[in-house]
Specification:
With 208 residues, the protein is of the alpha+beta class. It has 2 domains: 1-38, no CATH class; 39-200, Pnp Oxidase, Chain A (Roll). 34% of the residues lie in helices and 29% in strands. A hairpin with a 4-residue loop joins strand 5 and strand 6. The protein is extended, with a radius of gyration of 24 Å.
Length: 208
């Protein structure tokens, strides 16, 4: 059971709140707390956002508190919302340092950071994570279809709180595949227009 009075207490420690008070933002965050704080359950909108992403950053810390951030990527849908509190994904074989796995064995606290540069939106997710080995059924369920990667194990992330940030200072960027598709559509349209111009010229009456 969560011992925090508010879901946002996972991040707003007494020290953080003291700094907020000193710098003038505590009252606004206190009002958020009185309205229930951050959400703990995954909403349909959040689920759609998560499953549309091709990239995520997973933060862990070892027993001594040393933080570590690892990037995970794949096709849209590689992050799967399994229920309103659980996100799962296949853990693809990589450089085999196993820092994240070692950290999670010592300290299950974890954090997901998702950012969509095109939409200029970021989502922060606090919770706990665990590595699941030797469960091929789960790994197969989480593996993206036809994706050329070797799944080594699975990671299940249990959400305790999440928050959405404003788009301020997020540069707008676009996926290469989306840009290529837009350029291909533009080129197709140009060809259509050129053919239409040629047709109209061919059907125009000749000057006497």
């Amino acid at each position: 059971m969560n011992a925090h009075a508010f879901t946002s207490d996972v991040a707003f420690t007494p020290t953080v709140k003291a700094i907020q008070s000193r710098k003038g933002s505590r009252d606004s965050y206190a009002r958020v707390e009185q309205r229930g704080g951050w959400r703990a359950a995954i909403t349909p909108d959040l689920a759609a956002f998560i499953e549309a992403q091709t990239s995520v950053f997973l933060a862990t810390a070892n027993a001594e508190g040393q933080p570590y951030i690892q990037h995970r990527g794949g096709p849209a849908g590689f992050l799967k919302v399994l229920d309103e509190h659980t996100i799962g994904f296949a853990d693809f074989s990589g450089n085999r340092q196993f820092i994240t796995q070692g950290n999670l064995e010592d300290n299950e606290q974890a954090f997901l950071f998702l950012i969509d540069y095109m939409l200029r939106q970021r989502i922060k997710v606090w919770g706990k994570a665990r590595v699941v080995e030797n469960e091929p059924g789960l790994t197969a369920r989480l593996m993206p279809p036809d994706y050329k990667a070797r799944p080594e194990q699975a990671i299940l992330f249990t959400v305790s709180a999440w928050d959405a940030n404003c788009p301020q200072h997020i540069p707008q960027r676009f996926e290469a595949a989306d840009v290529a598709a837009a350029l291909a559509e533009r080129d197709r349209r140009i060809v259509d227009l050129e053919q239409e111009i040629a047709r109209l010229r061919g059907s125009a009456p000749s000057e006497v």
